[in-house]
Design a protein that fits this description.
Chains A, B: GO terms for molecular function: metal ion binding; methylmalonyl-CoA epimerase activity. The structure is a homodimer. Chain A has about 130 residues and is of the alpha+beta class. Chain A has 3 helices and 9 strands, in the order βαββββαβαβββ.
Chain lengths: ~130, ~130
């Protein structure tokens, strides 16, 4: 069912410093920051030859990464995103197997403009998984 | 400098259960477990179209993932591995920029039989980074 690794998201307390570190110290190709107000994050995309890293800094009072950074002030790996061909078929397979889908169970439109779901970390080895319809 | 995302490593308390979850619930291609005694882990490789996930369970008394699991009993994302062309050039660039390389500063032979280094999470947004010479 799961296909490509779409991205790994890393929550960071200071996205300008983190982007500069990836650009200068690690020599990676780094985008300009984009404020995604409806998602509560500012994001920087790091393009690797086979996938990408997304740096996420909280934006606004309801950011989904703010609590993560309270627990992990230095930042850390926040979630991993796998692509699926059919998000509704994926959801039904997961629910039938007893795994928990977060939120309303209906896919939302994610930061890339595509339908996404998040899965409960307790059911997946403490890892927050995002599924994105490719 | 950094190239492909070689793998994301996820520490798990029960590798048989985690492998079965990736195989059955997420429909991924999952290897048989391999005990890597010299690395203190049992590993399962999950092959995705563009990269791989490695599930790590502690093996023996000196496992590098045992303390991580004490802090994160459900498991979680443990490290991320980027490929580099020249591990010694990468090390020198990192050291010159003030980033900390863990251990003796000399590359070790990693789980794939290639030279690797680990970088200090405090210098990289709370993320443990492995560099592997591709």
């Amino acid at each position: 069912m799961i296909g490509r690794l779409n991205h790994v998201a890393i929550a960071v307390p200071d996205i300008a410093a983190a982007a500069e570190m990836y650009r200068k110290t690690l020599g990676a190709q780094v985008s300009a920051p984009e404020a995604l107000e409806e998602h509560g994050v500012t994001v920087v995309f790091i393009t690797l030859p086979n996938t990408k890293i997304e740096l996420l800094e909280p934006l606004g009072g309801e950011s989904p990464v703010a609590r993560f950074l309270e627990r992990n002030p230095d930042g850390g790996m926040h979630h991993i995103c796998y692509e699926v061909d059919d998000i509704l078929a994926a959801r039904d397979r997961l629910v039938n197997s007893g795994a928990r889908v977060l939120g309303s169970m209906e896919p939302r439109i994610g930061a890339h403009g595509k339908p996404v779901l998040f899965l409960h970390p307790k059911d997946f080895n403490g890892t927050l998984i995002e599924l994105e319809q490719a």
